[in-house]
Amino acid sequence: MKFSTGLVTVLSFATVAFSNPIKRDVNQVKADIANIAAKVTALDNAITAFPLTGGTLLAALGIHNSAVALDDTLKAATTNVISTGVVGDADGLDIINAVSAFSPNIDHALSEIVVKKPAFVALPIGGLPALIYQDLNKLQASTDGYATALVNNAPSSLTADAVALKAAALAGFPAAIAAYAP
């Protein structure tokens, strides 16, 4: 009986823990946006700095690492947006403005990765374009997930703005992915 009493206690705690997920707040969402903005800027800068000729494998792998870090951050931020729920008008406007501020960097990074494809292909290691293709697909999916969460939790007065922002954030992905498609 001692075993089953302990098991019931553990199951009771587990039930409470999973039925009451940690509620995030708008400040966490805003902090996540600042973190995403920093990672988007770092990725954009790394891609932009990669030369058209004479690039190094180390620099190329730095771009990959930046992409992975951004993907991980977007996934965590999506969870936080979802658990925050619908935000008020003032916070919604703050969020849209903050995301709008770094959105052009997404488009620039995607344009640059297409321009730099010959430089990545020229590196003496095979498979780098395939790795970039994989990174682009993952980033598209995590960006879509994050943007969808923002749209779903935007106040109704800002839903159209959030939808437009989502479309802008995703606009450059199809061309970049097509450029690296096998």
Span between termini: 61 Å
User: How is the biggest beta sheet arranged?
Assistant: none
Supply the helix-strand structural class.
Answer: mainly alpha
Q: Which regions contain 5 or more consecutive residues with pLDDT less than 50?
A: 1-22
Shape: elongated
Q: How many separate domains?
A: 1
DSSP summary, beta strand count = 0
**Overall pLDDT, averaged?**
90
What percentage of residues falls in helices of 4 or more residues? over 70%
Could you please describe the fold and organization of this structure?
The structure is a single chain. With 182 residues, the protein is mainly alpha-helical. It has one domain (30-180). It contains 8 helices and no strands. Helix 3 (57-84) runs parallel beside helix 6 (128-152), helix 4 (89-115) runs parallel beside helix 7 (159-170) and helix 6 (128-152) runs antiparallel to helix 8 (173-180). It is elongated. The N and C termini lie far apart (61 Å). Mean pLDDT is 90; it is low at 1-22.
